[in-house]
Every structure is written in structure tokens, then in C-alpha cells.
Design goal:
- Chain A: Pfam families: BPD_transp_1.
- Chain A: Keywords: Membrane, Transmembrane, Transmembrane helix, Transport.
- The complex is a heterodimer of chains A (314) and B (371).
- By secondary structure, chain A is an all-alpha fold.
- Chain A has two domains: 38 residues; 214 residues, MetI-like (MetI-like fold, Orthogonal Bundle), CATH 1.10.3720.10.
- Chain A is built from 13 helices and no strands.
- The two termini of chain A are 53 Å apart.
- With 371 residues, chain B is an alpha+beta fold.
- Chain B folds into two domains: 230 residues, Rossmann fold; 123 residues, Nucleic acid-binding proteins (OB fold (Dihydrolipoamide Acetyltransferase, E2P)).
- In chain B, strand 4 and strand 5 form a beta hairpin.
- Classes of the chains: A mainly alpha (314), B alpha+beta (371).
Chain lengths: 314, 371
């Protein structure tokens, strides 16, 4: 008798414990999510409020009369330091710096990964180890040496300008930032691509060799088209990092025309013209955050697995 | 002069010698199978022929031309890989024509070649598909198509069937054999499956530890193994290798096999190999294939030297086409191959016929054949 009923009782007890566990887990997760999303919510809500409402109302309340004015003002009118032309110019500065930096560092990473896995040479492991090491060098420690190097390059640019009429962009702040981010990013992009290509079937490379494809033909026709997942990962990672970078941006382009978005945003908030326009600041911050969000949403769709299916085995 | 000649080929990785002086040759239109257990160097040997691995010393010639230092694409070879290695981003047509594209063949000509190969392999309806949309057998066909379209001097196959299921493997094996027969191409084929080796090859090279153990036709390898390893490796079920001694029976030699709890069997040898007389009273290894050890009614009528002895049957395995019986001789399980309808019961004593014409003998010390 008991032998029959015991398992049933245990089973029902098991279900109860399970349900409680689920409730606790999901409850905690929801709590953390709310906690994490709260600042974003406040920013969004505030950016659509008028100053009156911000000064008199509740921070968490929804805007009573939503307005786009703070966003328009942040984009086109707000003061960054002494110039009051909005943040749009700096937004484009960031784009002009981020896009080349991301593309160059990603392509170099892919090329490095390809060589380190499919064209192994004596000392390849050591080279990779040193590149990994580059990932862990703190930003701060390269600030001054890099400033010195960029200074020398800049002076060389001036010399070129004087002698042959063009500096080839040497000494240009945007070019400098692209250079810094490419150098700093290569460690990470190489790591990503090397690990991806390590699992990439070497027989494909051999087959292409037999087919007569050259080093770069194999890279362009075989490796790259089959690297979409890691390409997307690297682009998202690099884009987010470089777009959000403040330290290098403020150190090497902290003043002047090439100032990127992050530095400009800091200056918007620090510029005091009497009243602190929280709504405009929040709108500016949202604009600064949008591209990384957008990249994630758009590129994430291509974040597919199983692209290699069909190459090898059944 | 042979079509493919390999002379004293050596390959060293650091201190480890993978290939220890390989000498092989193959006539035009021949089918050479390199067979051996994992790590014997057969795939490395194939890769050196393909040019995907460099060689330490030696020479490889195809049609009289030394190809040692040529780039793989310049050797006039085509290779089918174990994993097929189809480019996943290209269609079947793209895969087949990639090599021609790299060599700058005009598009119209490429299309013509694709159509021709697709017709031979019956993959015309698959040309616009991606490899991921193909089944295992179809991928195998496409991989062969990619090799065929080059019309090379030499085809290299690296264990092409090992990823297929058992039934498909048999079908594709026949297909490869038919392809070889109709196109008359020269093929070097690597496998660890000795049945593939026996069925496909015109020449087999059995390899172990970077050395060719025996090189010959399938019949030579099967009937006249030069050493214990070859005898043991080729054939399924494997050759029975029974520890025995050589005795005398009048003025003829006899093979003495120990039985469990009974007096030994003595098999009189009518036409013993000459070398065997030196082993009188000494231990040897007596090799007899399962089909040469059968029920007296099933024994070969015209074999000149058949000896019958009573054996204790331990296990009976009906396999449909044959019945396998396991007995114990010289302390080892010995498999006999009987007719499917042989009336035999485990645990009984039954006379078995030893076809001594087909028997082979090995020196246990050197593992070499006694001839």
C-alpha cells in the first residue's frame, strides 16, 4: 500500500517545490531587470518632458505633454563648450572615426586569424600569445607613449605638408583616433577570428589550394564568406567599444573639430548656462547611445549559427 | 616506365619520421589503394603526392615529370577529401567550377564542363543547391564531380567513403569502381577498410608505421602475405593464426596443433614450403583463412592437400550466407567457415577439413613468412 502511494506523494511534493523555485527565480530575474532598466526609463521619460514638469513633478512619472523639443535642441542647438550648434557635428565625427576603425581592425583580425590557424609558421603560438597579451594592457599605460608617437607622426605630417603639399592625413585627430583604436582592437579581433578559424575545416583550405586559389583568393572566397557569425560578433564588439570610448577620445581629440560624441556629451552636461537642462542632456545621451543599440538590433539578426552546415560531414 | 613513381620518399616532422622510405609505382589507369591502421602514414603519403605536405627526401614522378616541389595546383591532380570539403558558401555548380575559375577558364567553357560532369554523375538537378541542402551521398558525388571536371592525370581519394552509412558506402564503392572502369583514370586511394582495398584496387600497398609492408595485387596480398601483419590485417573474418610446432610424419613434415584436454592434431604436409624443414621441432605460426577451414563436404574438391581433423566446436554463428564455427586450437579461438546449411551444434566434436594448399607459415620471432 505504502509502496504504491509514496512515489505519488513524492511526485506531487516535487511539483510544488519546482513551482516555488520557478517563482523565486523569475521573481528575482524580473527584479534585476527592473533595477537595470530603471535608469534607461528615467532617461527616456525625462527627455520627453518640459523643464517645468521636471522641476515640479515626479522623476518616474510619464510625461504629461510629451515633446520632441529637447531632442531637437540637443541635436541642433545645445551648447558644447562655447559653440552652440548642437551635437550633430560630433555625432558625425564619431561615425567618421568609428566606421573605418571597426572595419580596418576587423579585417586585420580576420587576416591574422587566417594566418595563425591555416598558415602556421614557426613561433605562431608565441605571436598569438603576445597578441592576447595586448588585450590585457590597460588603456592608461599606453596613453602617454601613444601621445608621443602621435605627436611625432603629426610633426612628420606637417613636414610632408610643407614639402609635398599633402600630409596624407597624418596628424589629423580623426586619423589618429582610428589608428589608436585599430592598434588597440587588433588583439581582440585576432583572438575572435583565430578561435573561430581554429575550428574552421582545414580541408576546405587544402581543397582550394588544389583548385589553384592563392593566399588572398582563399581568404576572400573561402574564409570570409563563411565567417559571418564571428564577423558580426567582432563588429558589434568593436563598434560598441570604440563608439563608447572616452579616454582615448578625450586624450587625443578632446578639443577641436574632430571631437567625438562621447567627449561632446560630457561637455554638453558640463556647460552651464544657468539652468541645467536635464531633458536636453538626457536626449543628448540617448542620441549618443542609439548607434550601438541600432548596430546590435540590425546585426544581431545575422547572428546566426550553423552557417558552416554542409561543408563537412553529413 | 610506370605512370606514377615514388622513390625513397621520406617525411620527417621534427625528430619523428612519419614515412621511412616509400617505393611504389603504378601503371597508367591503375588503381592503387594505400591501406593500413590509423597513424601508419597513408594519409601523409597521399598529401605529399598532392603537394599539401612537403617531403624530406625522395622523389615523386607523374608521367615522367618530377613533381616534388610543384604547387598542388600545378601537379595536374585532383583530390577528394574525407570530409568532401565542399565550399559551403557556393552552389554545387560554383563548387565544381571554382578550380576552373581560378585558372581563368571562360564562363561558357566552364558551363560546358559543369554540364558534362553533372551528366556523368547525375547531379544535374542539384547544380543550384548549396552543400547544406544535399544528403551525404549527394555531397560525395559533388566532391567527385569537382575532381572529375579537372580531367587530371591523377586522382587522389582520402578515405572518401568513411563518412557514409554502411549501405551507401557499398553503393558508392561500386560507383567509384564503375567510374574508374569507364573513365580509365589513374587513382590513388587511401582507406583503412581492407574490404574497400580488396574490391577497388589493382594494386594494394599495406602500410604500417611509415613503411610499406607489402605491395602487390589484391590476390597476392590476400593469398601470399609476406608477414604476420599483412596476413592479420587483410581479410574479414581475419586469417586464423595458430601457434603450432613442426613435427615429422614418416619422411614428410606435419603441423602439430594443440587441442584443449585432448591429444594434439597432426596434419601431414604433402607440399610443405622448403623453408619449413629448418623448423622441425620448433614453434611456428600456422595461418589458415576461415574459408580454407571448412566442413569436409564443403571443402574444395580439386585442392590437392586436404587434411581432416576432429575439432571441438565452441560457438556457432549463422551469418545467413555462411555459418561460422569457432573451435580452439593452439590455445586460440579459430574460425571455420562452413556452408550456410551445415548441420553443426556447439559443444560437439565435428570433423573439419584443413585446405593445406592455402595454408601459410610464419616465423614467430621475425614475424616473416616461411617460404
Amino acid at each position: 500500500m505504502s509502496a504504491v502511494t509514496t512515489p505519488a506523494r513524492q511526485a506531487s511534493g516535487g511539483v510544488n517545490v519546482k513551482t516555488v523555485n520557478r517563482i523565486v527565480i523569475y521573481g528575482l530575474l524580473a527584479l534585476f531587470a527592473v533595477f537595470y532598466l530603471m535608469p534607461l526609463f528615467v532617461m527616456l521619460v525625462t527627455s520627453f518632458k518640459t523643464m517645468d514638469e521636471i522641476q515640479n513633478g515626479n522623476m518616474l512619472a510619464l510625461p504629461r505633454a510629451p515633446t520632441f523639443d529637447p531632442w531637437l535642441k540637443a541635436w541642433g542647438e545645445t551648447c558644447v563648450g562655447l559653440t552652440c550648434a548642437g551635437i550633430k557635428g560630433y555625432f558625425w565625427n564619431s561615425i567618421k572615426m568609428v566606421v573605418p576603425a571597426v572595419l580596418i581592425s576587423t579585417m586585420l583580425g580576420a587576416l591574422n586569424g587566417y594566418v595563425l590557424t591555416k598558415w602556421r609558421f614557426r613561433g605562431a603560438t608565441l605571436v598569438f600569445g603576445l597578441m592576447l597579451f595586448a588585450c590585457f594592457i590597460p588603456f592608461q599605460s599606453v596613453l602617454l607613449p601613444m601621445a608621443t608617437i602621435l605627436g611625432s607622426v603629426g610633426r612628420f605630417g606637417v613636414t610632408l605638408q610643407n614639402s609635398i603639399g599633402t600630409s596624407f592625413g597624418l596628424g589629423n585627430s580623426t586619423v589618429n583616433l582610428v589608428f589608436v583604436h585599430v592598434v588597440y582592437g587588433i588583439g581582440f579581433t585576432t583572438l575572435f577570428f583565430r578561435n573561430y578559424y581554429e575550428a574552421f575545416p582545414t580541408e576546405l583550405v587544402k581543397a582550394a589550394q588544389v583548385d589553384g586559389a592563392s593566399f588572398f583568393q582563399i581568404f576572400r572566397r573561402i574564409m570570409l564568406p563563411n565567417s559571418m557569425p564571428i564577423f558580426v560578433v567582432t563588429v558589434i564588439y568593436q563598434f560598441t567599444n570604440i563608439w563608447n570610448d572616452f579616454l582615448f577620445a578625450s586624450a587625443y581629440a578632446g578639443t577641436g573639430d574632430a571631437m567625438p560624441m562621447t567627449v561632446a556629451l560630457n561637455n554638453v552636461v558640463n556647460t552651464s548656462t544657468g539652468v541645467v537642462e536635464y531633458n536636453v542632456n538626457m536626449a543628448a545621451a540617448m542620441i549618443a547611445a542609439l548607434p550601438t543599440l541600432l548596430v546590435y538590433v540590425l546585426a544581431g539578426r545575422y547572428f546566426v549559427r550553423g552557417l558552416m552546415a554542409g561543408a563537412v560531414k553529413g | 616506365m610506370a605512370f606514377l613513381e615514388i622513390d625513397g620518399l621520406r617525411k620527417r616532422f621534427g625528430q619523428v619520421e612519419i614515412l621511412k622510405g616509400i617505393d611504389l609505382d603504378l601503371e597508367k589507369g591503375g588503381f592503387l589503394v594505400l591501406v593500413g591502421p590509423s597513424g601508419c602514414g597513408k594519409s601523409t603519403l597521399l598529401n605529399t603526392i598532392a603537394g599539401l605536405e612537403t617531403i624530406t627526401s625522395g622523389e615523386i614522378r607523374v608521367d615522367g615529370r618530377t613533381i616534388n616541389d610543384l604547387h598542388p595546383s600545378k601537379r595536374d591532380i585532383a583530390m577528394v577529401f574525407q570530409s568532401y570539403a565542399l565550399y559551403p558558401n557556393m552552389t554545387v555548380a560554383g563548387n565544381i567550377s571554382f578550380g576552373m575559375e581560378m585558372r581563368g577558364v571562360p564562363a561558357a567553357e566552364r558551363q560546358k564542363a559543369i554540364d558534362k560532369v553533372a551528366k556523368v554523375l547525375q547531379i544535374g538537378h542539384l547544380l543550384q543547391r548549396k552543400p547544406s541542402q544535399l544528403s551525404g551521398g549527394q555531397r560525395q558525388r559533388v566532391a567527385m564531380g569537382r575532381a572529375l571536371v579537372r580531367d587530371p592525370k591523377l586522382f587522389l581519394f582520402d578515405e572518401p567513403l568513411s563518412n557514409l552509412d554502411a549501405k551507401l558506402r557499398v553503393d558508392m564503392r561500386i560507383e567509384i569502381k564503375r567510374l574508374h572502369a569507364t573513365t580509365g583514370t589513374t587513382i590513388v586511394y587511401v582507406t583503412h577498410d581492407q574490404i574497400e582495398a580488396m574490391t577497388l584496387a589493382t594494386k594494394i600497398a599495406v602500410m604500417r608505421d611509415g613503411e610499406v609492408q607489402q605491395f602487390g595485387t589484391p590476390a597476392e596480398i590476400y593469398n601470399n602475405p609476406t608477414n604476420l601483419f599483412v596476413a592479420d590485417f587483410m581479410g574479414s573474418p581475419a586469417m586464423n593464426l595458430i601457434p603450432a610446432t613442426i613435427g615429422t610424419n614418416g619422411n614428410a613434415l606435419s603441423v602439430v596443433l594443440q587441442r584443449e584436454a585432448r591429444e594434439p592434431i597432426s596434419l601431414p604436409m604433402a607440399n610443405a614450403p622448403a623453408g619449413l624443414s629448418a623448423f622441425q621441432g620448433k614453434p611456428i605460426i600456422f595461418g589458415v583463412r576461415p574459408e580454407a577451414l571448412t566442413d569436409p563436404e564443403g571443402a574444395e574438391r580439386n585442392a590437392s592437400n586436404i587434411a581432416t581433423a576432429d575439432c571441438h566446436i565452441e560457438v556457432v554463428e549463422p551469418a545467413g550466407s555462411d555459418t561460422f564455427a569457432v573451435t580452439n586450437l593452439g590455445g586460440k579461438g579459430v574460425v571455420a567457415r562452413l556452408r550456410a546449411d551445415a548441420n553443426i551444434q556447439p559443444g560437439t566434436n565435428t570433423p573439419l577439413a584443413f585446405n593445406l594448399t592455402k595454408a601459410v607459415f610464419f616465423d614467430p620471432a621475425t614475424e616473416n613468412r616461411i617460404r
